[in-house]
Design a protein that fits this description.
The complex is a heterodimer of chains A (362) and B (316). In chain A, helix 6 crosses helix 15, helix 8 crosses helix 11 and helix 11 packs across helix 13. Chain A has 15 helices and no strands. Chain A is globular. Chain B is mostly helical and 316 residues long. In chain B, 69% of the residues lie in helices and 1% in strands. A two-stranded antiparallel ribbon of chain B has the order 1-2. In chain B, a hairpin with a 2-residue loop joins strand 1 and strand 2. Chain B is elongated. The two termini of chain B are 28 Å apart. Chains A and B meet through helix 2, helix 7, helix 8, helix 11 and helix 13 of A and helix 3, helix 6, helix 7, helix 11 and helix 12 of B.
Chain lengths: 362, 316
């Protein structure tokens, strides 16, 4: 750690890196180190999941035990290779993961295929949730900081805590109860009406992300239908993260408001709201960028619950279906795959944070 | 610090005295909610009108999906349980999970973080990588995997509650570790630690007296975040059908899972009450945590006593 921090700041960077050349070598070294760290991260997660799942026994007994005779069971187990030593299985598993093979579900689909088919839906849900989180969380957080210790602040903070305190599935159920069961103005589940879904699946080169597909059809009815279906799930999942953002922005803006440069600005007669909006706001966003990485993980966990609540046919919904079907190979595959995704997103987020805030590079 | 009366040095009492205005209001509200939760959890057998798995009484079967009435103030569930009783008993389940998971992870996480941040070297690097890997992982997914393992895929009282508590422990350790380690690294480079070293204080004394004391500032917040996350995680597991059988214990998440159908049909009472119970408990715990965190951080503490800032509206 020390040797990196003390590395001399040589101007070795090409001049194309405008304005970023200060401490450039440290930055690139940080990117490299951070990139190399992805591999142990994935390795640790995949290993943890593998070991945890295999301690239970083998997936075939877990799924079919009781339905088959012991002889049939043993035959299936040895056919799948689950009777070999754990270490051999582990090495083989690592090898297949390296080749991008995360196993197959009980009905013979490769897990990566499940990801390709349903990943788009989860991505779409997470995207809507992040929009809700940004639009609601950041402005309200700034407002709370500006109104610090007044009633408005208290109301906003309690709102933030409520956002966090409400489990996504309960928020989802409440939204469903009010907007679809009682008022009947929004659909209660699914990603689109059956007819729209058929139309969307028939498009050439469908991405599986309905919003994009719908926009490509250019049909306002289809776009409206897709957006209507996305509204409640996006809101349920987004409010969870919005609460986190609100708290974070509030705390950080309050922190920066006590910096000397803010005092300097205040003494020049800058108004309190302007102080928050232009002076304290930007530095307070840096921690948000760092936290988004963690929020991605939270969103994925929340997506499992949101998708189950709204029967949103994404990766999370599939995961809970596999859980119900006791298909633990598929569960393990999806969880390991999500681990890889989380590790990669965190890498990207960390790099962005390092570019913005020099203090991050160690 | 040492000559203060003993009462003032108790964690919550001291901070309560320190608080003013809105901060005191939020802290009080949180403490009241937590107190009610504790009482309900401890005295569930006395408060609940029926048992959590009771389907009938002397007057016969409760009947499924009964709207709220005199005999069942909050109605009955799709399976014919009394909603009020299950919500009350659910508090007990929640309390056990919180206590087991938070206490275990707090001890392990703080110790690891302190040692790792102070000693540095290869141990630190390995721990950071491992903890980061686990920390970055969606905790619910890890909890699912752990629940499968610990309960062997079977749902039971012990399996359900302990699986959740243990899996949450695994998820939480890295959180304590990260925070305490980061603070430790920062504090170790402060001048007063160096002076302590120069004066000849032992490693343990520096670690406990100088570093730990200052590194625990953000722990109340994580502690409460974790207590509430524990509730949310067990509810999430229950909602996915991975919780506890209704005959073994009452669990709010499981009840919400059963309520999905009711919601679609417009029956509100089976979903609203267990859900509100979760929200209230998490709200209460978080209110306490946020207030403690603000009070511990001089930058966030309300500076009303000094009376130097602007005019203030009188709140309390």
């Amino acid at each position: 750690m020390a040797d990196i921090a003390l590395a001399p700041e040589t101007p070795a960077l090409p001049p194309t890196q405008k304005g970023r050349s200060r401490g450039g070598t440290t930055l690139w070294r940080y990117v490299l180190v951070r990139f190399l760290l992805i591999f142990p991260t994935i390795f640790i997660l995949v290993t943890t999941v593998f070991l945890m799942m295999r301690v239970t026994g083998d997936p075939i007994t877990a799924a079919l035990g009781g339905q088959l005779t012991p002889a049939q069971l043993a035959e299936r187990i040895s056919a799948a290779g689950y009777d070999r030593p754990l270490f051999v299985q582990y090495v083989e598993y690592l090898g297949s993961v390296l080749r991008g093979d995360f196993g197959t579900t009980i009905d013979g689909q490769p897990v990566t295929g499940v990801l390709l088919r349903y990943g788009g839906a989860t991505l779409e849900l997470a995207f809507y949730a992040l929009i809700v989180a940004f639009v609601v969380g950041i402005p309200l957080g700034m407002l709370a900081a500006a109104l610090r210790d007044r009633w408005g602040d208290a109301v906003l903070r309690i709102f933030a805590i409520l956002c966090y305190a409400t489990p996504v599935f309960f928020a989802g159920l409440l939204l469903k109860l009010v907007f679809s069961s009682w008022l009947g103005i929004l659909p209660s589940s699914g990603r689109a009406s059956p007819r729209v879904e058929l139309a969307l699946n028939r498009i050439d080169g469908a991405t599986g992300i309905y919003t994009i597909d719908a926009i490509r059809t250019g049909n306002p009815f289809i776009i409206g239908d897709v957006l209507q279906h996305a509204l409640l799930p996006g809101l349920a999942l987004g409010l969870l993260t919005a609460g986190v953002f609100l708290r974070l922005v509030r705390t950080n803006v309050i922190g920066t408001l006590q910096m000397p440069y803010i005092d300097a600005a205040r003494s020049r007669g800058v108004s309190e709201f302007r102080l928050v909006r232009t002076h304290a706001y930007r530095p307070a966003l840096i921690p948000i960028i760092t936290v988004i990485g963690l929020q991605i993980a939270m969103l994925l966990g929340g997506a499992v619950l949101t998708e189950t609540t709204f029967e949103w046919m994404g990766l999370g919904f599939q995961l809970s279906e596999f859980l119900k079907a006791r298909d633990f190979v598929a569960v393990q595959g999806i969880v390991a795959l999500l681990a890889v995704i989380v590790a990669l997103t965190n890498f990207v987020v960390d790099i962005i944070a390092a570019f913005i805030d020099p203090r991050v590079r160690y | 610090m040492a000559d203060k009366p003993f009462l003032d040095r108790l964690p919550i009492v001291a901070q309560y005295r320190q608080s003013v205005g809105l901060q005191r209001g939020m802290l009080t509200a949180g403490l009241v909610i937590c107190g009610v939760f504790l009482l309900v959890a401890l005295f569930a057998p006395l408060i609940a009108p029926y048992g959590f798995s009771q389907l009938s009484d002397d007057d016969g079967s409760f009947g499924p999906r009964q709207a709220p009435s005199g005999a069942h103030p909050w109605g009955t569930t799709i399976a014919g349980y009394d909603v009020l009783s299950r919500v009350v008993w659910g508090a007990q389940t929640a309390l056990v999970v919180i206590v087991v998971s938070v206490v275990m992870s707090l001890f392990i996480g703080v110790l690891l973080g302190l040692v790792s941040g102070y000693v540095k070297g290869w141990l630190d690097r390995i721990l950071v990588v491992v903890c980061d890997a686990i920390y970055a992982f969606p905790s619910l997914l890890l909890a699912i995997v752990a629940a499968i393992v610990i309960s062997g895929g079977q749902s039971s009282l012990f399996g359900g509650i302990m699986a959740t508590a243990l899996s949450i422990t695994v998820v939480f350790i890295p959180q304590y570790f990260r925070v305490v380690r980061a603070e430790t690294v920062r504090i170790t480079s402060e001048a007063y630690v160096e002076s302590a070293r120069v004066v000849g204080a032992s490693t343990w004394r520096i670690m406990i007296r100088h570093v730990l004391r200052n590194a625990t500032r953000s722990l109340p917040l994580i502690f409460t975040l974790n207590a509430s996350e524990a509730i949310l995680t067990i509810a999430g597991l229950g909602f996915l059908g991975f919780g506890i059988e209704p005959s073994a214990a009452a669990e709010w998440g499981y009840d919400l899972n059963r309520a999905v159908e009711d919601v679609t049909a417009g029956r509100w009472w089976t979903a609203v009450f267990p859900g509100l119970a979760i929200v209230l408990v998490v709200l209460g715990i978080t209110l306490v945590g946020e207030s403690l965190n603000d009070l511990a951080d001089p930058r966030l503490r309300t500076r009303r006593r000094a009376g130097s800032r602007k005019k203030k509206e009188v709140v309390s």
